[in-house]
Design brief:
Blueprint (H helix, E strand, L loop, with lengths): L1 H15 L3 H17 L12 H15 L3 H13 L6 H6 L4 H15 L3 H9 L1 H17 L7 H18 L3 H7 L9 H13 L9 H30 L4 H10 L17 H27 L8 H4 L2 H6 L9 H15 L23 H4 L8 H12 L4 H9 L3 H6 L10 H13 L3 H9 L4 E3 L5 E3 L7
Antiparallel strand pairs: 1-2
Helix pairs in contact: 1-2, 1-3, 2-3, 3-6, 6-9, 7-8, 8-9, 8-11, 9-11, 11-14, 12-14, 12-17, 14-19, 17-19, 19-22
Length: about 475
């Protein structure tokens, strides 16, 4: 019986392709069969996977190119409760080939239609569908690209790329938030997909949508950065000279010692991971702008896309009124106190205590992977923003940001190529700016390293 059902579904799939009359007659029956074969009694029966896969492909052929059916099918299945939604049921099946077919169906429904894309994001069930796909993609990130799992990831990436091109990223990001979470796991996965998407700005992205995306990303980065600053401040306590000295001299790769009453925010690694992705996204857009201005490897219509973006980034302000450049530098300053650099082969366990209810050292109870690359990517973005921009150069000087950049001109295993990006940022800060050059010239070394690797102070030197 199962073999007969598969054969009939395959025959119907081919029969309805691009034939509107056949599509209209078959829709109700195929939809009902898909509902029956995704019930909880069959979802663990591997023998039914071939049937559900073929029925899903048939549904995809039913809606493709038929606007009349799409107008009925899409709103109905996006607004159904979860227990009656065949889309949620199909996505929940542990069969990658069925998932591939569902993703093709979803892409056919939203392709080139911002209206249907907005219906997806505005409905609770639509967001549930997106979160389900994002969770699946996150689980596939570290798996080999070959095989069915790799194809599932590629189709999922294509689906969200379609939503990005429709200008729906900001709305989808907001809709996937969670209460009491600064950044949700789904939002982090979305940022990963956007970062990959923006590595080369697609020529089909409209200029007003890209500018709107830049405005949204800067506001999110400012929001995340202020939360990170607050969490770091809470952990390290007062930022007096003793704390600064700990940052300068520790250099062992641990986390700066906290005050006795300091508390570590367990959301901080996730916030920092989001900051890395946000800074990469903004850097990609800003670098595309630079290519456009230089005329190198840029699509003909890319010039109008990205010209205002660097200005928009640098001119953004947080909800508290803090400028983007100033917020970036304050985040780097606090990170330099909180996460001293790792010298090669010198990493040590953290000295920070775990939060109440979490025994052991922080290094054993908290995931520190979110801090990787953070300083490097933030200073890289700063260097891009101050390139040939006297206003940004002056703002960095006025908020005493030049010593912060100088302190980042070091080797750090947690931030590969941090020194090179910091030197590039310093070069852009000093180019054509005598006032900034004078600030660097006035800074004198506090000491020198002797043959034993001990920092010896210089008489009369003043710590800046």
């Amino acid at each position: 019986m199962a073999h007969l059902t598969v054969s009939l579904a395959k025959f119907t799939r081919n029969l309805v392709a691009d034939v509107p009359s056949n599509q209209t007659h078959a829709l109700a029956q195929i939809r009902q069969l898909a509902y029956i074969h995704t019930s909880w009694t069959k979802e663990s029966d591997e023998s039914t996977f071939a049937i559900t896969r073929m029925l899903t492909q048939t549904l995809s052929n039913l809606v493709t190119g038929n606007e009349t059916i799409l107008e009925r099918f899409w709103p109905l299945h996006i607004q159904l409760p979860e227990e009656r939604s065949i889309l949620i049921r199909l996505l929940g099946l542990p069969d990658p080939r069925t998932t591939m077919s569902v993703l093709v169906l979803l892409m056919n429904c939203v392709h080139s239609s911002s209206e249907r894309g907005r219906v997806l994001i505005s409905a609770t069930m639509g967001v549930r569908i997106c979160v389900s796909i994002l969770d699946r993609l996150e689980s596939l990130l570290d798996l080999p690209e070959s095989g069915d799992d790799g194809k599932v990831f590629d189709l999922g990436y294509a689906f969200f790329s379609e939503l990005i091109e429709l200008g729906l990223f900001a709305e989808l990001y907001d809709r996937t938030s969670l209460q009491e979470e600064v950044v949700s796991p789904s939002q982090t996965t979305l940022l990963k997909l956007l970062d990959s998407y923006l590595q080369s700005v697609p020529s089909g992205l409209m200029d007003d949508r890209l500018h709107g995306l830049v405005t949204f990303l800067t506001s999110v980065l400012l929001f995340q950065a202020e939360h990170a600053q607050h969490a770091i401040q809470q952990a390290i306590g007062a930022t007096g000279p003793d704390v600064s000295r700990a940052s300068d001299e520790q250099g062992d790769g641990g986390i700066a010692p906290q005050k006795a009453d300091g508390a570590f925010d367990m959301q901080l690694p996730g916030i920092c991971a989001a900051l890395v992705l946000l800074s990469n996204c903004l850097s990609s857009i800003a670098l595309s702008e630079g290519e456009s201005e230089g005329g190198a490897r840029a699509a003909p219509n890319l010039v109008s896309l990205t010209l205002p973006c660097r200005t928009a980034i640098a001119g953004a302000r947080s909800s508290t009124g803090t400028g983007f450049v100033e917020c970036l530098l304050e985040t780097l300053r606090k990170l330099d106190l909180f996460l001293p650099r790792i010298g090669f082969g010198r990493a040590k366990p953290s000295n920070m205590r775990a939060p109440s209810g979490h025994g052991g050292a922080l290094g054993q109870s908290a995931d520190l992977t979110g801090f990787a690359y953070l300083k490097r990517d933030l200073v890289r973005l700063l260097g891009i923003l101050c390139h040939d921009n006297r206003a940004v150069q002056d703002r960095v000087r006025l908020c005493e940001g030049i010593p912060i950049v100088l302190n980042l001109c070091v080797i750090d295993e947690r931030n590969p190529y941090l020194r090179e990006h910091a030197l590039f940022a310093l070069r852009n800060l000093l180019q054509g700016n005598p006032e900034n050059q004078a600030v660097v010239d006035a800074i004198k070394p506090m000491g020198t390293w002797d043959a034993d690797g001990v920092l010896r102070g210089t008489s009369g030197a003043v710590r800046r």
